Amino acid sequence: MLQSEALLNHDTRNWRGQWIWTEGSVRDIRPGGHTMALFRRTFQAAGGERLTVRISANSRYRLFVNGESVSIGPCKGDANRHFYETVDVSGLLQAGKNVLAAQVVHYVGTEPWTMGGISGPISIWSERNGGFLLDGALTDAEGRKQEELHTGASWRCVTAEGYAIEPSGLIQWLGGLERVDGSKLPHGWTHPEFDDSGWPLAVSFAPLRNPFGERVGWALQPRSIPPLYERETTFASLVRAQGCEANELDTLRGLESASVIVPAGSKLWFELDAGLLTTGYLHLAFSGGKGTEFRIVCAECYEPEASNASKGRMKGVRTMSKGGKLVGDPDVYLASGAGTPESPEVYEPFWFRTFRYVRVEITGGNEPIALHSIGYRETGYPLEPAGTFDCSDDELNQIWRMSLNTLRRCMHETYEDCPYYEQLQYTMDTRLQMLYTFHLTTDDRLARKAIDDFHSSQLPSGMLQCRFPSMLPQVIPGFSFYWIDMLVEHYRYFGDIDLVNRYRPAMLKLLDWFERYRTPEGIVGMLPYELWTHFDWVESWPFGAPPTQDEGPMTLHSLMYAVGLNKASGLLDAGGWRDAAGELRARAESVVEAINRHCWSTERRLYANSPGTDDFSVHPQIWAVLSGAVTGDDAAELLRRAFADETLPVASLPQTFASMRALEACGLHELAFKEWDRWRLFLGLELTTTPEIAHGTPRSDCHAWSALPLYEFSATILGVRPAAPGYARICIAPRPEGLSWASGTTPTPHGPVKTDWQFDGDAFTLRVDAPTGIPVDIVLPDGTRWEATGGETIRAACSL
User: What would be one Pfam family of this protein (predicted)?
Assistant: First the structure.
C-alpha cells in the first residue's frame, strides 16, 4: 500500500485505547531521567480466537505475546507524524491464560538539547511524558468480540528501577549505553504464568482525541515501511580469551545448549568475531552468579594499543588483534542470580548494537555463574536485493559485496549515515543510498519515507534540516539540494508524478530561500553564520568547507543552486507547471552567468572556491560542469587540468558521485574508472564495509555514502539506467574500461534487465534480456546507437 493510500484508510475514531503510563505519569523531567516501564495485560482464550493489535509509545516499545517478541517501534517519526504498528498476533494465542506484555523506554528530551545520554538518542523523537498505547479486542473466529484489551485501567505496570542509561562521548548521538541491575528487575514477566498481582494499575492520562481538535496525545499515522527483520545468528569465531579455556568458551557460540562455569570472584574476558560488521540485538544467557558483573564492548575493528578514542584514533588492518585492542564504551549488567539452567537469566540491551567484534568482561560475584550462550539477532530493513554484479576483476566483485553489506547496515527505520556512531538520516547520504537501493530492488518504501521525513523537517523559512528525524535541529544549506535530487531520481526510476506534485510547494519554498540570499552581482551570498557550511570531508578543509568560507560567498552554493533550479524545472515541466519551470530555468541561467563573471579566475583558468580569492579545489570545477557553466570541449579540458593538478584538494568519498557524473558528461571514462583505486585499498585493510573517508583515519568504518559501487557498477559498467520515467524506456550503455567481461541484473518496475558483455580480442559483444514490450536504447562503447524492444534476447557487437 502506498503511503498516501495508507493515510486515506487511517482512521482512529473507533479506537478505544488510551495513553497510559506508570503511577505519577506527569513526572519531574530531569536530564538523564530516562525510564523503562513494563506493562502487562492477561486474558483467557478458549482456542481459535483472533487478535490484531495497534501499538505505539513514547519513546520506544517492544511488545511480547506469551513471551514471544512480536513488534518493536514505533517507527521513527517526529512531532507531527507519530507512527503506530498493526500486528496480527492470533497465531501466538493459546488455550487458557495469555498475556500481552510491553517493554517501553521513555527518553527524556531536555531543552536545550545535550548529547551523550542526558537527553536520549537524537534520531528518536520524544515528548515530555512517557506513554504506551494499544488498541485491540479478542474476537472469535467469526469476528464477534470476546474481550477488549485496549490500554486503560485494566493494564498493570511497574517502573524497571534497575535500568539506567549512562553518557557515552564516543556514541553521544545514540544517547549512551546501559547500566542494568538485574536484581531490581522482575524476571519472566513476559510470560503468562508470571504473578503480576502486586503490580499497580496503569494510569490513563490522555485519550486519542478531543472534540475540539486539540492534540491531547500524539499525532498518529500508520507505519509506512515493513517491520525490520530479526534473525538469530551465531558469532563466526572466538578471537581470544583470558581466564578460561578457549575451547570451553567457543561452545557458547553454538545454538545448542552449553555451559561454562565461572568460579565465584574470578575474572575472565573473551572477544568474539561476527565475521563481518553487522547490527543486532546481543543476548547473553546465564544462571546463578548473583552480583556477577558483565561489561560488553561492541567495536567495529581492532585498533593499535596507542589508539585513543578522545585524543586520536589510529586504524590499520581491521582484523589485527595482535598488539591491538577494541575501542568502545560498555553496556554493564549485574546478574540477579535468578536464572536456572532450565530458565536462564538473559541480558539483552534494549536498542540494537553495531559491531564486528564484541568483548565480554566478567567479574564474578559471591557465587559461581554458569554461562550458557552468547549470540545476537541480526536486524535491519528487509532489503531483498534482486540487483547483481559480477566481472573479470575479482577485486571489484569484493568491493560490490562490501558495498552491499554497508548499505544493509545503514538501513533500519530510516537510511542512516553510520550505524555505530549516529544512526542519523542526512540528506546527502540518503540521496545516494536511495540511488543504490534503486539498482538493487524495486522496493521504494524506505525511500518514500525518507522524502517525507525531510519534507517534515522544513522550517518556516523554507530551509530543510540536513538530518531528520532529529531532536536537535541542524542545517547545512547545500545539503538541501539533495532533497530535490531525491524527487528527481524517484521520478526517474518510478515515474510517480503524484509524489512529485505533493512536494512541489516545499521544493519551490526551498529554492526561494536561496534566491533571497542572492547578491546584486547575482551569485548566492554569504549565508547566516549559525548554519553549517559543509560540502565535503576534504582533509585540508576545516569543518568540511574551504578555508575562505568566512571571507566571502562560497562558489559551490551558487553552482549547486543553479543545478537545483534546473532539476526542479524538469520536475515542474513533468507536472505541467511549464511557466514556473521556465522561470526557474531563467533563474539558473542568470546564476550561471554571474558565476562565470565573478568566480572564474582567468589567471588560474579555474573556478575559485570564493570569488576574488586565490583558493581553489576540484569541487567547483566538477559542479561547474554539472551546472552548465562550462560545456563541451571546454568542460573536458577543465576537468583534465583539474584532476591532473596535484595542488588542488580532491573530492573525498561522498563527493565522488558528483565527480563521476561530471567526468561522464565529458566522456572522461578512463579517469572515472581510476577512482576505484581508493576502494581497492579497503580490501587490504580487511574492511567488510566502506568507511566514512579514504584518507587519514576514518571515525566510522561503515558509512553508506561510500557504497557508490552499487550504483556505478550497475549504471555505468553494466550501463543500465532509465531512459524515460519509470523505466518506460530503458537505456543500456556499458562502459568496459579495464575489464574483459561483466554481467549482472538490474531490477525495474517491469521486470529485471539482465546484461552480459565480454571482449574477445578487440571484438565487444553484448547480450541483453529486457522486460517484454519495453523499448531499449543500446549505446555501444564505440558510440554506435540503435533501438530494440524487450522480450527476446537482444544481441549487439562492435570492434574497439
Answer: Bac_rhamnosid_N
